[in-house]
Design goal:
This protein is an all-alpha fold. The chain is built from one helix and no strands. The protein is rod-shaped.
């Protein structure tokens, strides 16, 4: 199989990279929010015990 990114122009390659960075930042935000939620739940549980 051929890699679909091997035949892209420079502009298309930049667009793919920009979209990938955007998805990476979105995934980071989701994971950070999930970690913050778990941390907050742990703090609330510790205060009520």
């Amino acid at each position: 199989m051929t890699d679909p990114e091997t035949h892209l122009t420079v502009a298309e390659s930049d667009l793919v990279a920009r979209r990938r960075r955007g998805r990476n930042w979105a995934m980071f935000a989701v994971l950070a929010a999930l970690a913050a939620l778990f941390y907050a739940i742990a703090i609330v549980k510790m205060r009520h015990s």
